[in-house]
DNA sequence: AATTTGACCGAGG
DNA sequence: TCCTCGGCCAAAT
């Protein structure tokens, strides 16, 4: 079931600059809707990979995974560096910066 | 081998 | 928004 991780990494890698997404959306896109936990677990194993894990937050826009970065402030720094606003470990205007993996399909389906 | 825990989510109160 | 509960599956102990 390593494909699961591969998919997670793939999607996370496709998150546009300055955008964020949630574990639930990723899980939903992969197909394991109610296993958002696995997405987070996969992220935990993504330390050595070059994926923007800082663009993945929980549904509230809370930086729940910041403790797994090199430094707790790194996640916030990266997000702010991308033009986002982080306050009290939470993304400001979260919905405004939210990116849905399904938007990839929408591009492909735009011909329909 | 069994139990607990985890970068979670949704529903109900 | 906060609390609790059930679900989900893998890794750690």
TrEMBL record:
Coiled coil: none annotated. Residues 3-83 form the Methylated-DNA-[protein]-cysteine S-methyltransferase DNA binding domain. It holds the Pfam family DNA_binding_1. One of its GO terms (biological process) is DNA repair. It comes from the Bacteria. Keywords: DNA damage. GO terms for molecular function: catalytic activity. PANTHER family: 6-O-METHYLGUANINE DNA METHYLTRANSFERASE (PTHR42942), ALKYLTRANSFERASE-LIKE PROTEIN 1 (PTHR42942:SF1). This is MGMT family protein.
């Amino acid at each position: 079931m390593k494909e699961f991780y591969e998919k997670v990494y793939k999607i996370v890698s496709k998150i546009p600059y300055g955008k964020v997404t949630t574990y639930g959306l990723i899980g939903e896109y992969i197909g394991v809707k109610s296993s958002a936990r696995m997405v987070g677990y996969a992220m935990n194993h993504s330390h050595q990979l070059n994926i923007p894990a800082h663009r993945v937050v929980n549904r509230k826009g809370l930086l729940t995974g910041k403790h797994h970065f090199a430094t707790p402030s790194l996640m916030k720094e990266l997000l702010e560096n991308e033009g986002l606003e982080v306050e009290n470990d939470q993304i400001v205007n979260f919905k405004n910066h939210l990116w849905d993996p399904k938007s990839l399909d929408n591009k492909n389906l735009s011909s329909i």
